[in-house]
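Private note to self, pasted from the team thread so I don't lose it. C-alpha cells:
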C-alpha cells in the first residue's frame, strides 16, 4: 500500500483517473494498514497529497487519525459509508465533543491547529460554532485570540476564499476582538504573498479607523502596494508620511523615481534626488541611471550632462557604462551626432568598456545622419572588440547599405557578412534555449527583435553583392540558417547569378521556390523579370522560353518590363518572328500596353534584318499610331532610314514621317538620319530633303556638311554637282562658316578641299 501511495503521489494531476488512484491508495493505507505502521510522516503525506487534488475529506481522515491526533473520538468511516470528496466539503469534527467545561479552549486550539495545517475544516468549525453560540462566544471558544483569527484568515486566503477572509475580519470586529498593529502587518503579509496588493492596501483604511498608526516598515510596504495597484498619488502620500517618520531607504527613493519616470517629471525627480543627498542617503548607480533616463526622456539632455559632470566631481564611483549610454541615447534622440561622439570618447577616457548598446546607438544615429563611413568604422571597432552584434546592428547596417551602395569595398562586405552570421547564430541559440543577452545591460540591449531585421540585412547584402564568392557566402547562410529572402532579395540573387553568367543556378533557384510552394514569391513579376534579364544577357533563348512558360504556370502577370526584355532579347538574337509573336500575345488582350521603346526595338529589328522588312515596319507604325502611342525622334529617324535609304520608299517615308508624325505629334527625324537619306538618294530627292531641312524640319539647321552631301548625291565617286545646279532656296539657309578661302569677285568661295558652293555677294 505504501508503494502504491508513493507512486500515486508523484504523478502529476491529470483529472479523475489520478484522483481515483489517490483515493484508493489513501484508503488502502488508512483502512487496511497495520496500526503500528501508521506513522506521523505517512499520515502527513496522505494529507498533503489529498489536499493537492482537493480531496479534503480524506485529508481530514489522515490528519485526525486516532493514532496521530486523539481529538477524533469516533472511528473512521469505512469506504462504503465515506462522504463524497468534494472541494470545500470536509468532514467537520463534532463541535459538542470539542466544547467541554474541563477544557473550554479546546475548540479554539483545534481551529488553530487545523488552520495551521491549511485545513478548511477550521473555517467550517468556526462558522458552525459561531452560529450556535453567537451570544456567548467565550463559552464556546474559551478565549478569542488574534492567533485564531489570523490562522483562519491565512487558511482562507491560501485557498482563494477571500470572501470568507472578509467574513472573519467582520466577525472579529463584531465580537469586539482588539486588532493590534502586528495583526494588521501579518494580514498584509498574507495578502501580499498571494499578490493581493489591493486587499493589503485596503487594510490601511481599516487600520486608521481602528485608531492605529502605521510604522515605517508598514509605510514602506504600503508604498510598494500602491505602486503595484496603479495608485501613484497614494504612493506619494505614503512616501511623505515615511519621510516624516524615518529616513527612507534607497529602494523607496527608487520606487518614487519610477513614479516620476512614468510622467517624465524631471523637476520632481531632481528635487527628490537633492532631498536624498541632503538626508544622508548615498545614491547608488541604479538611482543615478533612473534619474538620467528621466531627464533624457524629457529631452533635457543638457541637464543629464550636468548631473554626470557633478558625479564626476564628487562621486565618480557610481557612474557606469549605462550612465554614459543613457547620455549618448539622449544626444541620439536629438540627432546630435558630434555630442554623442564626444560622450563616446569620454566613456573610453574613463576606462569603461563600450557595450553593444553603445555601438548600436551610435551606428543608428550615424545612419540617420547619412554618415556611412562612420557607421562602418564603428562596426569594425565593435567586431575587433569581440562584442556580439544583435538585430539592432543589422538594422543600422541594412540602412547604411541602402545609402552607400557605391562605397562597399571588400573589407566592409566582410564585416557585414560577419555581423549577419553572428546574429544568425545568436538567434538560433535563443530559439533553442534561454535568451542570450549582450554584455553591459541597459535599456534595449537584449536581442528580442524578430528575424525580420536579419532578413532585411540579408536582402540589402543581396542588393550590393558584387563578386561571385559574396553570393556564394550568402547562399551558404540561406542553407545554414534557413533565411528566407523576400521577393526583392530573390530578384537580387537572380540578378547576381545573371551577372556572373550562372543562369543554371538562377533556374535551379526558381525550381526550389516552386518546390517549396512559396507562392507569395512565385507570383512576383519582378523575380521573373530578373530571370528574363539573366537569360537575355546570357543569350540563352531556351532558358527564356522556360521562364515564359513558368510565368504562365505560376500566374505572375507580365508587365511592360517583361515585354521590353523579351522583345529586345529576341530581336538582338535575330528572332524577329518570335519577338512579334510574343508582342502580339502579350498585347492582344490588353494586359500590357507597349510603349514607344518596344516599337522602336521592333522597328530597328525590321531595319537590321536581312532582307529589310519595310512592310512589317509600316504595319508597326500604323499600329503604334492607332494605339495613340506617341512616336519619338528615334522612331522617325528609323523610319526615314529604313524606308528612304534602304528600301527607296522616299515618298512613303515623307508621307508617314515628315507629314503625319510632324503634324500630329511634332516629332522629326534627326539631322544625321536626313543627312544619310541625302547621301543615299538621287539629286532631285536630295534637293527636296535639303529644302525640307532648310524650312526648319529639324531642330538643327543645315550646314556645310549637308551641302557637300547634296553636291555628291547621285554622282560617281570623285565627282560633284555644280553649285549653279542648286536652287537659290538651298543657298539662303544660313551664313556659312569661314574656312581658309579665297574671295572671288563673282561671290564664289573656293574651299581648301576643292569644293565650291555658290553664295551671293550680298550675304
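Design output:
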Amino acid at each position: 500500500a505504501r508503494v502504491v501511495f508513493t507512486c500515486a503521489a508523484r504523478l502529476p494531476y491529470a483529472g479523475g483517473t489520478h484522483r481515483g488512484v489517490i483515493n484508493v491508495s489513501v484508503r488502502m493505507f488508512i483502512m487496511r494498514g497495520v496500526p503500528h505502521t501508521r506513522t506521523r510522516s505517512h499520515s502527513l503525506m496522505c494529507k498533503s497529497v489529498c489536499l493537492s487534488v482537493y480531496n479534503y475529506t480524506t485529508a481530514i481522515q489522515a490528519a485526525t487519525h486516532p493514532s496521530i491526533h486523539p481529538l477524533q473520538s469516533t472511528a473512521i468511516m469505512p469506504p462504503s459509508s465515506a462522504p463524497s470528496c468534494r472541494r470545500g466539503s470536509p468532514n467537520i469534527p463534532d463541535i459538542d465533543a470539542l466544547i467541554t467545561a474541563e477544557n473550554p479552549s479546546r475548540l479554539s486550539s483545534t481551529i488553530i491547529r487545523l488552520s495551521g495545517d491549511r485545513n478548511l475544516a477550521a473555517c467550517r468549525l468556526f462558522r458552525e460554532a459561531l452560529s450556535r453560540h453567537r451570544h456567548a462566544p467565550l463559552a464556546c471558544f474559551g478565549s478569542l485570540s488574534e492567533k485564531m483569527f489570523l490562522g483562519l484568515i491565512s487558511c482562507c486566503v491560501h485557498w482563494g476564499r477571500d470572501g470568507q477572509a472578509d467574513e472573519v475580519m467582520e466577525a472579529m470586529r463584531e465580537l469586539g476582538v482588539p486588532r493590534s498593529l502586528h495583526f494588521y502587518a501579518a494580514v498584509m503579509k498574507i495578502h501580499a504573498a498571494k499578490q493581493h496588493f489591493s486587499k493589503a492596501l485596503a487594510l490601511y483604511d481599516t487600520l486608521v479607523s481602528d485608531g492605529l498608526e502605521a510604522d515605517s516598515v508598514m509605510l514602506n510596504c504600503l508604498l510598494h502596494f500602491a505602486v503595484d495597484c496603479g495608485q501613484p498619488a497614494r504612493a506619494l502620500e505614503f512616501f511623505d508620511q515615511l519621510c516624516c517618520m524615518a529616513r527612507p531607504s534607497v529602494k523607496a527613493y527608487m520606487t518614487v523615481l519610477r513614479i516620476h519616470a512614468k510622467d517624465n517629471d524631471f523637476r520632481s525627480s531632481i528635487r527628490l534626488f537633492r532631498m536624498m543627498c541632503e538626508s544622508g542617503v548615498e545614491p547608488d548607480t541604479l538611482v543615478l541611471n533612473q534619474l538620467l533616463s528621466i531627464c533624457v526622456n524629457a529631452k533635457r539632455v543638457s541637464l543629464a550632462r550636468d548631473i554626470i559632470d557633478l558625479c564626476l566631481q564628487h562621486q565618480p564611483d557610481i557612474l557606469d557604462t549605462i550612465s554614459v549610454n543613457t547620455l549618448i541615447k539622449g544626444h541620439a534622440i536629438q540627432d546630435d551626432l558630434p555630442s554623442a561622439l564626444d560622450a563616446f570618447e569620454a566613456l573610453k577616457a574613463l576606462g569603461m568598456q563600450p557595450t553593444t548598446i553603445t555601438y548600436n546607438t551610435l551606428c543608428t544615429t550615424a545612419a540617420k545622419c547619412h554618415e556611412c563611413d562612420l557607421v562602418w568604422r564603428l562596426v569594425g571597432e565593435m567586431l575587433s572588440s569581440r562584442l556580439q552584434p544583435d538585430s539592432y546592428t543589422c538594422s543600422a547596417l541594412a540602412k547604411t547599405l541602402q545609402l552607400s551602395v557605391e562605397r562597399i569595398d571588400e573589407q566592409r562586405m566582410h564585416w557585414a557578412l560577419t555581423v549577419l552570421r553572428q546574429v544568425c547564430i545568436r538567434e538560433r541559440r535563443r530559439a533553442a534555449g534561454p535568451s542570450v543577452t549582450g554584455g553591459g545591460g541597459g535599456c534595449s540591449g537584449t536581442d528580442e527583435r524578430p528575424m525580420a531585421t536579419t532578413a532585411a540585412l540579408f536582402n540589402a547584402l543581396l542588393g550590393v553583392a558584387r563578386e561571385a564568392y559574396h553570393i556564394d557566402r550568402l547562399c551558404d547562410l540561406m542553407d545554414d540558417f534557413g533565411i528566407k529572402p523576400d521577393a526583392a532579395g530573390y530578384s537580387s540573387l537572380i540578378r547576381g547569378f545573371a551577372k556572373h553568367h550562372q543562369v543554371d543556378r538562377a533556374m535551379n533557384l526558381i525550381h526550389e521556390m516552386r518546390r517549396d510552394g512559396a507562392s507569395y514569391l512565385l507570383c512576383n513579376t519582378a523575380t521573373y523579370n530578373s530571370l528574363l534579364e539573366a537569360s537575355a544577357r546570357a543569350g540563352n533563348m531556351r532558358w527564356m522560353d522556360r521562364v515564359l512558360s513558368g510565368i504562365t504556370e505560376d500566374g505572375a502577370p507580365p508587365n511592360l518590363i517583361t515585354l521590353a526584355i523579351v522583345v529586345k532579347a529576341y530581336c538582338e538574337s535575330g528572332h524577329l518572328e518570335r519577338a512579334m509573336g510574343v508582342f502580339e500575345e502579350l498585347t492582344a488582350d490588353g494586359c500590357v500596353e507597349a510603349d514607344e521603346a518596344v516599337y522602336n526595338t521592333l522597328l530597328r529589328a525590321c531595319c537590321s534584318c536581312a532582307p529589310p522588312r519595310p512592310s512589317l515596319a509600316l504595319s508597326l507604325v500604323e499600329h503604334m499610331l492607332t494605339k495613340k502611342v506617341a512616336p519619338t525622334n528615334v522612331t522617325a529617324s528609323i523610319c526615314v532610314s529604313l524606308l528612304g535609304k534602304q528600301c527607296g520608299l522616299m515618298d512613303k517615308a515623307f508621307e508617314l514621317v515628315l507629314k503625319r508624325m510632324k503634324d500630329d505629334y511634332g516629332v522629326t527625324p534627326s539631322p544625321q538620319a536626313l543627312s544619310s537619306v541625302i547621301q543615299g538618294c538621287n539629286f532631285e530627292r536630295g534637293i527636296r530633303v535639303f529644302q525640307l531641312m532648310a524650312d526648319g524640319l529639324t531642330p538643327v539647321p543645315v550646314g556645310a556638311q549637308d551641302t557637300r552631301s547634296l553636291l555628291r548625291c547621285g554622282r560617281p565617286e570623285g565627282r560633284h554637282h555644280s553649285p549653279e545646279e542648286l536652287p537659290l532656296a538651298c543657298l539662303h539657309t544660313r551664313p556659312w562658316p569661314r574656312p581658309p578661302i579665297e574671295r572671288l569677285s563673282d561671290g564664289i568661295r573656293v574651299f581648301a578641299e576643292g569644293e565650291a558652293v555658290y553664295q551671293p555677294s550680298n550675304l
